[in-house]
Amino acid sequence: MLHRALIAVLFFFGVPLVRAGEVLDRLVATVNGHAVLASDWEEELRYESFMAKRPLENLTAEDRSRALDHLIDQELVVEQMHSAEFKTATGEEIERQLVARRNLYGEDSWSSGLRNYGISEAEVCRHIELELNQWRLVEARLRPAIEVDGAAIESYYREELVPKIAPAPPPPLAAAAPTIRELLIEKKINQSLDSWLQNLRSQAQIRVLIPEFLPAPGEGQ
Amino acid sequence: MPKTGLARVLLALVVACWPGSECLWSHSQTSDGASPLPPGLVAGKRSACSYGQVIEAVNFPDMTPEDQNLLAELAGLRPGERLELDGLQQAERALAATGRFAELSVECERSNQGRALLSFVSRPNFFIGRVSVEGAPGRPTQSQIVNASKLQLGELFTRERVDRALANIARLMRENGYYHASLAHYERQHEETHQVEVAFQLRAGDPARVGKVSLQGSSLFSRGQIEDIAHLHPGRAVTAQTSSDAIERIRKKYQKQNRWLAEVSIVRADYVPARNSVDYTLDIETGPLVEIRVEGFRLTKGVVRRNVPVYEENALDDDLLNEGRRNLLSYMESRGYFDASVDLRRESDTPRSLLRVIYQIAPGEKHKVAKVEISGNKYFRDEELRPGMQVQEASLVLPHGRFSQALLRSDVRDIENKYHANGFTNVKIDSEVTDDYRGVKNQLAVRMHVEEGPQTLVGSLSIMGNETQPTESFPPLNTQPNQPFSDFNIAQDRDILLNYYFNSGFPEATFEASAQPAPNNRMDVVFHIHEGQRRYVDRVLVAGREYTRAYVIDRELEMKRGDPLSQGDLLGTQQKLYDLGIFSQVDTAVQNPEGVEQRKNVLVQLEESKRYTFNYGLGFEFQTGQPSINGKQPLGSAGLSPLVSFDVTRLNFRGRDHTITFTSRVGRLQQRGLLSYEAPRWFNNPNWKLTFTAFFDHTLDVATFTSQRLEGSSQAEQVISRKADGSSSAVIDYRFNYRLVKASNLEIVPQEIPLLSQPVRVGEPAIGYIRNHRDNDLDTTRGSYYTVDAGVAASYFGSQADFSRLLVLNSTYHPFGKQTKSTKQFVFARSTRVGLENTFANTVSIQPGESVPGYLTLIPLPERFFMGGGNSHRGFGLNQAGPRDPITGFPTGGSALFLNNLEVRFPPPNLPFFQDNMTFAVFHDMGNVFSDGSHMLESLLRWHQNKPLCAQTLNSAFQLGASAALCNYNYISHAIGLGVRYKTPVGPVRFDFGYNLNPTVYPGVIQVSSSPVSYQFVGTKQASPFNIYFSIGQTF
Questions:
Q1: Tell me: the pLDDT tens digits for B364-378?
Q2: Contact B85/A39, CB-based, under 8 Å?
Q3: Is the domain defined by A21-213 classed in CATH 3.90.1150.10?
Q4: CB-closest option in A35, A41, A205 to B92
């Protein structure tokens, strides 16, 4: 009797079980017609969590939203790569970066981390390559328009470097100038990057299909 | 607890998959219809299907079988392959790139064989269709509102776009003063075409009014005065131009007072909702008085104003002042002062708030360009180089010639470019200017010596990358082996090839060219083409058809399913639909233009015109020799004839592109009503048109009689050949006319009145041929025009008079003279007309005054040839040529006509005020009307009328009958004259002044007794030799 009841219950619930389609993947956003998939989003979340050593179970809606934004920005920048001229990352450079990160992560926890976060080293390499190329594009686009004059270097030396190093004697200005120049340029690039990305977003057609993660008004069309 | 293992497994399965657990998850809809994400990070756990499984089938639910196949091909996932994440992602990206899907998800079921059954579940995108507006207030117009929405036909329909459209329209309304406008919108989706119609409903409300006006700065005028100047009166309605017009008016006011540096701006325009008004705050700084003077040479104010652009631009800045300096220098050089210099200086007088701008001119000596010589040119002859030059020798038109260093440099550059375009990449041109040429003081000789250098030719041309389009199919290219090599030719070839590809369905085609030197001054050229993906037409979706029959539209479509997607076909379809004349708007677009699908739907959005249109007009005619109502003037009189018109047109009758028209004209000389039915594309043939016409005409354009005509006709028109632009160049028309013609108020010998005053039926089949090879019908400069019209009126066709008619016209136009950059050519125009009417059966032709046996009839007066007036012989008044009635002296028309017009049309000179809109012509007209054809032939060489024959003894009795034929009108009358034409948007308006060299003489007769009727000769009369005409359009 119980056997028959179990079978009845099984057919009542189990038939839909074997017949109901389950979603493997779906479209979550489009950027100028290019698809951002749920699987892309998941991979991005896992990668970011892995690199930040953040537990997956602690992911918040804000983390998810930030990851989706990164993906959208990535698409916009990748589009720019097609028409820009810059030196792409080589295999050795990617490998070097991978080693550096592995060292930073810690050799012991690297492999287990990959396992726990459900990503492979090949996926990490892919992310590294993308990051390197993106940064090179940003530099190629934004650096030529940036100028740092002597006054700015001197001001940084006086107001930032010397107080930071104190009480140790600061290096001579002439010796520190190249490094300070580079630092200031990087800073300006970062500042310009935000406005550049905002500009790209305002000109792009971005559709987010997950209502709770819709972009702010004015972003995309 | 179940005892058997199977049951335990089954129970465990059920419990594990109970609703609420992770793997049994149903489609629930969020508020926007999107499915929520599966639980987990984002994509959920996959337990029923897993990667590595073999794919059993790939489905696209809710798609047509054809689409299923296409999408399956695009996705690239095939049954029997293994399901992998990379492959799945690629498939999703490829499908998303089509742009067809608003949502797309991949679902997987495990089949009975344990394989993966994939389903791509989607929600389609919709695209923008018709956008309409109701409630537009007139300003802004409906079109402006639709444009402001920026909703483009065929583009993706998104909520964001609609929101942006609403914001844009609201902003447009505010800019036009409608701050209280309310806007709603409605959408109508068409599932079968995936199109969305968007309708905006607007309630504009009251426009805002001008409120308070405040001033800042120093304006020199009071607030009230500023309000008057700017038209910013409180209470006046605010429009989009209120602010800009106000600023402009105030600026102009200051500029009239020579305050060219006045600064005027509206710093605030605050809307006050309570009053529905806008308060304006103006900031005005008047700046100094500016005086612009020319010193060193006397120039009229008009010349200074024309050359110093400060006046035209209503602004003063360094650029404009420098441009004025350059213009004044060019002006001086054009007057022969080739050594002139113009300096500019400013003098500031601060206490008086005055700024002086002084152009100091040092004219130098006046020169004349005696000679312009070009040497060293072998490839181009002088005749090919000189017409384009601006430096000119002195001539009648340019007494000092034209020269300046700038003009010379420009000419050198132009000639160099001409050589470069023909492969002479190393051409060098040296110029030399010699003063006091041949010892004559201030005479210049300008010499240009050309060193052509070697000509580079194309060695070989290779075209690469054209994988689908053979080279033989390309249009002719400019770059060919052994032809001149030039960048200009390559640029043109780029346009030719890309146009070819764009019109063959390759919108992404690109072109690059490279060239390598080859021996013997050759360049081997390679064109690299990247074709890109070819696009094809899927469906042609026509929307907006309400009354028009589908076949009327379908036959104008230049695209059909499967054709390559061609921009040219889209434009051609649009043009052909507009040409039907039944649509007020025709838009064509590609649906989903940004999607990468190979097959695209093409959208044709129509807006049918209002089917009824009404036109009314008021006008006048003026010329000499016009008949006067109830007047007894054989020669007519000069005067105005007012005219009123009213027309009704019914387009697209029964949706078949047939047109019914009623036109009416009522004037002093003519009253006419016409009803016509026009059916283009008879038998669905674009070269055939059928027309039925019925009209009533009551006309007094021949002084001799008033004609009434009631006519019905049918006409079939056949286009034999067309020009490149699609207009007809040769046409045959087949007509049958049936009319009742009556002449009344006859001014002819009394014995002819009973016969000629009877109404006469004329049934006449006719055929006409027109061949038009003119370059421009309104203003012809070259080509020819030829017409033949022939008809037979016979009793067999119900006619009461039997006669045949033939009228032949031939016109030719020949340009001559030099054409330069700034002047057109002369045109010699000729037109010859010959007309013949032959009577047969019981119809005869007689001389005026001859008696007619009772059983015979004459050609009715309205059916005879008449000539004279602004559109035929300009030596006569309107229809005044030819034989005249011996008693009344009124023209009686004839059965033969000969007319030859010669005109020399001058190129338009550049005149003050008129610019190049006025042209002149001199003409010679010769010809006449004859009572029959034999008289015409023998009169062609007779240049004088035999005037003594028209005279009898003064005060003697005037004899009718045979003696009436004594006055002979068989001669060719000549007239010369001058014409003035002024170009208007509707065509040239024409004044002609004609002088007849041998005006017609006819007997003057008075009636001395009525019973019996007798007449007395009182001397000959002569038509006036002077005639004036005013009309629109050229004479021929």
A1: 989 999 999 999 999
A2: yes
A3: no
A4: A35
